[in-house]
Amino acid sequence: MHTPRDRHDLAEIIAAAAGKGETLELAGGGSKAAIGAPREASRVSLAALAGVVDYDPAELVLTVRPATPLAEVQQLVAGQGQMLAFEPWDHAPLLGADAHATIGGVVAAGVAGSRRVTAGSARDHLLGFTAISGRGESFVAGAKVVKNVTGYDLPKLMAGSWGRLGAMVELTLKVLPRPRTELTLALDGLSPAAAHAAMARALGSNAEVSAAAHLQSGLTLFRLAGFEPSVAARARHLPAILADHGRLRPLDAEEAAPAWQRAMTASGLAGAVLWRVHLQPANMPHLLAGWAGEWACDWGGGLVWLATDVQDDAVRQRAAELGGEATLIRAGDDIRARVPTFQPRTPGVMALESRVRRAFDPAGVFETARFQD
Amino acid sequence: MPAPDQSVLARRDEIAAALRAIVPGEGVITAEHELRPYESDGLTAYRQPPMLVVLPETTAQVSQVLAWCQANGVKVVPRGSGTSLSGGALPLADAVLLGMGKFKRVIEVNYEDRFAVVQPGVTNLAVTQAVEARGFYYAPDPSSQIACSIGGNVAENSGGVHCLKYGLTTNNVLGVELVLMDGEVVRLGGTHLDPAGLDLLGVVVGSEGLLGVVTEVTVRILPRPETARAVLLGFPDPELAGACVAQVIAEGIIPAGMEMMDKPAIHAAEAFVNVGYPLDVGALLIVEVDGPAAECDHLIEEVARIANENGAVTCRVSQGEAERLAFWAGRKAAFPAVGRISPDYYCMDGTIPRRRLPEVLQRMEELSQSYGLGVANVFHAGDGNLHPLILYDANVPGELHKAEEFGNDILRLCVEVGGVLTGEHGVGVEKRDLMPDMFAEADLRQQQRVKCAFDPDLLLNPGKVFPTLHRCAELGRMHVHHGEVRFPELPRF
Q1: CATH class of this structure's domain B6-99
Q2: Minimum-distance CB partner of B383 among A141, A147, A237
Q3: Which residues of chain B are within 8 Å of residue A152 when distances are taken between CB atoms?
Q4: Do the first three CATH levels of A7-177 and A181-264 match, i.e. the same topology?
Q5: Which helix (H) or strand (E) holds A176?
Q6: Which of B144, B149, B154, B100 is nearest to B127 (CA)?
Q7: DSSP secondary structure string for all residues of B349-374
Q8: What average pLDDT score do residues B342-366 get?
Q9: Residue B32, min C-alpha distance to chain A (Å)
Q10: pLDDT band for position B492 (50/70/90)?
Q11: Which residues 438-477 of B are in CB contact (within 8 Å) with A?
């Protein structure tokens, strides 16, 4: 395990590995290490690269080092009445990791929570970064202002790249005001098809629902967020919009919090194998038809968690038939060794991705055996 | 621009014949007078007729045209509606201009899952028009929206006055069909969120036509907000207006639009459209909020309170839709209004951290005096995106050059205070040579290596964005010898 003290150290470690044809796995806190194939990779802990560099709430911009704990960042911005709008969350409990999520880790993994459906993902909030490429070379992309189109939008590529392009040493994120109040309204007893119809109706209405989720129990959740007078007005409006779909009832915080948690983080779903499926919401009921295991659904139906004890990749074929894709999040060593983490893309797209990765990392320093694509 | 390749020009007839075999009929234009309409885009100071124009109608034709051009070493410049303000679609004398204007179809609208699939030649406004009957719209609204195409919006990552709240093009596109320079057709993204693999869609949006040609676009559509209201605020000076903007955001309000105009812009606009802008103020803010009526009422009250706390001397809340539109009419006419008070104007597009606004305006005023050219400012205040309009007369010898130098100084100033060269218009040819002011050589080389992954022969829209063209083979070299590692390019921190 490498433990660079600073970015100069990190650059030397990467350049040395590139020169020797070795591979490196970048890690923030290590909370998501159980995602991907079992591997004997030489790890680089970015733990020393932590701390806030600059935070100006009025500019809506935060610059931070990658290993800063996610919880610390969220606490910092909450103290100013702000938030990371993409609602990143910590995978450690889900994966049983003895570690915590870092800001660099959630951005590199493209993590987004329930608000994804209206507020965007990590990719939509990473404004700029400084990174060390696979050449051991420091480079900057994007900027520290909220509106910028100067040069290629490399922050988009970096978000969700799982540390395969370079090691971020500094990230600039867009932050947004935290809603003054949030309210959850729910419908009971809906089938997946009825839930999709209700969620589509709500998200397509001007009641400005900020998140919508559906649980196996039949509970279907709608989140209203904003200033008090606005939330109150929309809470009166939404029941009429959904009148054909059932009777909405408000959920108190004690009932709402664990329900959202389940939809967003798959908490409590029983099954050794956990898949995360992204698909067009209308196909969610088709995916769930005949599914024997436990499940939960977020993003208005665009994200489905499937839990099972069956050790095969039938889910992946089913997701592909429905135009979606399945990511293997949690599984035993043997299945993770056999089944790639991500749904394969077309050969043309895979080849293009590979050329883009080589553009940042010509020697393949960051190509461990973790992702078999 | 790079000098035209005479050997390509000599093969013009052969190239035209080959492309006619792919796009039959009138899809290939070679007559000089018919090439003229294509000689410039929205950056009219630059003009160059293309070698020839090809107007394909299908993805297969685009693919064959690009593959043929790649195989024969012919450069290609893609073009949507030609409204770029940075010269993104400026032709080259030795390049084929690939016009996407015949891709005009709305292919699919899905209201349930809230997306529309359109061809790239569909105009920005036409997307909204295709879905508005059902209460939906497409959020990014560049001021050229009646003319600019969605394909061009994707290339330039276009914004608009509402992008602080609703995002730029990149935040509203779900997928594209893209043809690479070698003719390969790939689909990036689609109808679901966060596809697996690298976010190639994210880097294609805003790549200014250098990475591929978009032949289909899937955009997110949003339910139209219940209502919108605007408030017109006058301040003695821009500094107080800027403080008001900062406090609005600090209090947790993200308005749908927040526009500032300085004194010269206010006077020009009012003289042009007569909408009742106060003429005795140093800065004007238009703040628009949208959403449920209860929210708009609440927020307008809050904004008015904040404005008063920051020394506003005028505060008019729109009473009804007609007045709201009147408030905007002046702002939206600001460019042509300035065109009435000056023979020519040159529109800039830098972004700065908002807190540096007073200093930037002060130094802009000093530059204005030293160049002897006037400047009027309109400003997307919420996100710090400045549009200084430099007033000049192209008929006065040397004045265009002076205006461009003034503009360059303004953009360098934006970078110096921590901002960027372009907030929404793109780099194009216009700001290409300023890129080293914002990026170090290592940064630019990394961006160019991405270009090489898509277009290794550098045939697609060459001469845009990057000041120096490095051959891809040169960019691919690793400075590592026999395991001995040296860091000649490590920056000093």
Answers
A1: alpha beta
A2: A147
A3: 203, 206-207, 447, 450-451
A4: no
A5: strand A176-177
A6: B149
A7: --B--GGGHHHHHHHHHHHHHHHT--
A8: 93
A9: 34
A10: very low
A11: 438-440, 442-447, 449-454, 465, 476
Are the beta carbons of A153 and B205 separated by less than 8 Å?
Answer: yes
Would you list the domain boundaries of chain B? Answer: 6-99, 106-223, 227-335, 343-426
Do residues A157 and A130 touch, judged by C-beta distance below 8 A? no
Chain-chain contact of B186 with A346 (C-beta, under 8 angstroms): yes
C-alpha–C-alpha distance, residues B438 and B427, integer Å:
12
Chain A residues with CB inside 8 Å of B439's CB? 140, 151
Instruction: Report the sign of the C-alpha dihedral through residues A145, A149, A154, A157, in that order.
Output: positive
CATH level 3 topology of A7-177: 3.30.465
Residue contact A359–B452, C-beta within 8 A: yes
Task: List the CATH code of the domain at A181-264.
Answer: 3.30.70.2190
pLDDT digits (tens, 9 = 90+) for B279-296: 999 999 999 999 999 999
**Partner A, chain B 204-243, Cβ-Cβ below 8 Å:** 205-207, 223-226
Top-tier CATH class for A266-338: alpha beta
Among chain B residues, the shortest Cα distance to A205 is held by: B223
CATH number belonging to domain B106-223? 3.30.465.10
Q: How confident is the model at residue B478 (pLDDT cuts 50, 70, 90)?
A: low
The average pLDDT across A100-115 equals 98
Q: Could you tell me whether strands B52-54 and B95-99 are parallel, antiparallel, or unpaired per DSSP bridges? A: parallel
Question: Which tens digit of pLDDT belongs to each residue from A172-192?
Answer: 999 999 999 999 999 999 999
Q: Which of B199, B249, B349, B451 to mutate to test the interface with A (most CBs of A within 10 A)?
A: B199
Report chain A's terminal Cα–Cα distance, integer Å.
24
With CA atoms as reference, report the closest residue to B247 among B261, B267, B233, B265.
B233
